[in-house]
Amino acid sequence: MRYSVFRILEQGLTGNRGWKPVWREPDPKPEYDILVIGGGGHGLSTAYYLATVHGQTNVAVLEKGWLGSGNVGRNTTIIRSNYLLPGNQPFYEFSMQLWEGLEQELNFNAMISQRGIINLFHSDAQRDAAVRRGNAMVLSGADAVILDQDVLRKKCPFLDFDNARFPVLGGLWQPRGGTARHDAVAWGYARGADRRGVDILQNCEVIGFDIRNGACHGVATTRGAIRAKKVAVCVAGSSGQVMELAGLRLPIESHVLQAFVSEGLKPVIPGVITYGAGHFYISQSDKGGLVFGGDIDGYNTYAQRGNLPVVENVCEGGMALMPMIGRARLLRMWGGVVDMSMDGSAFIDRTLIDGLFFNGGWCYGGFKATPASGYCYAHLIATGASHPVAAEMRLDRFASGALVDERGAGAQPNLH
Amino acid sequence: MIIPHPLLGPRDASEFVYLGDASLIDRPDPRAADALQQFHDYLYLRDNPAGEHRELWFHEHGDRSWLVVTRNTLTHEITAVELAKKVALERGRDR
Questions:
Q1: In a domain, B95, yes or no
Q2: H or E element, residue A197
Q3: Chain B residue numbers touching A250 (CB-CB < 8 A)
């Protein structure tokens, strides 16, 4: 069923009895051309682009829980392309361009809102770094504007500009950045893939790989064995667990990132704002809740919940930057397990096992990458060659020395 | 999380800095023939288990000792805490 204004009117006048489930719930077939492990944003977009760009429709997506039950429904919904390094920025700008046409392509309302993102700076040195980053963004085809304090005072009068320790001097603004409704992104990709014949198999956990003579021939699952010519892993926080089943160790640690939402308020935060002195970022949902977060907890965990000192730290960052939010009450907080890589950048690569591919290491920033990650992963799986914008996201980069170390923190995942 | 420090008793985890897997104690021998490969694996690859995990914590806001904490990464339950110095000596390191 194609969605349109006329469909809404028609259904509204006939008691909304005509809406149908937007994807099937098929039983697993014994064999597929391609298996995508992980029914989150990246896995579903991979399946979607395999079907639409490469004509691969004998594909199944395996999800151990329900569709979109992991990080695609737990993030803070920010989309942006404000990276610095040549191994990252063209990729994220490509993703931004896919975001811009996504709703029309999927015929699904993902509530994509290009309300802008502002990274604040608080010192001359930070301003220089912001200008350099802005130049790198412009060189990649993205948009970047340096805002001075006067302009920023008009846009965001509530910031603590004259803070004695960290005065707000200005910000790096990407007007095309913004937010998207994360669940709808998963649902839209799932619907688009399903309509083209991709099987989405929920409650189907992978418990082993069929690896013979250095090649992967399929997987064992809780719903039986499934053969496949190619197997593509895409499981974010569970990367270490799943790849261990294939006998591979990864340059990844799993950590927890907490996120928070306040009670609903009238519109007050324009766009996305990030603090340059502490780790704090905030936006306001269309329902009015302030959506914010900060640092990861900083220790290995799979628990999907964090500890209170980080909650205090995040809220202190918010209070230091915009004291007005102190009156807002916290409504909910939750955690997601993120796959922190050793240099803070992601992997879209083949493995040493023939027919087994790996996509992961997105750290706490995988949501914005969802369209390009799926697009480039599908390109790699279908053609055997890396997509040009993802060519540096290799698993062997720690052996070759070609790191993509955006933060410059070294092999210390909890510092990225 | 509360970490039961072997010398100081129960201490809040926020007094500590986290480093990672306790296998970082086992620095490879730089004179080994395959030292390059060993150091690559030592520096960059992790077991990243879901369940029991032995890991290094540094008591920065305390007695500045390194601890080996055995903690469950699914429940955050801590089952053992040792001084890293003792563990390192037992594993044949000179300090």
A1: no
A2: none
A3: 45-46, 48
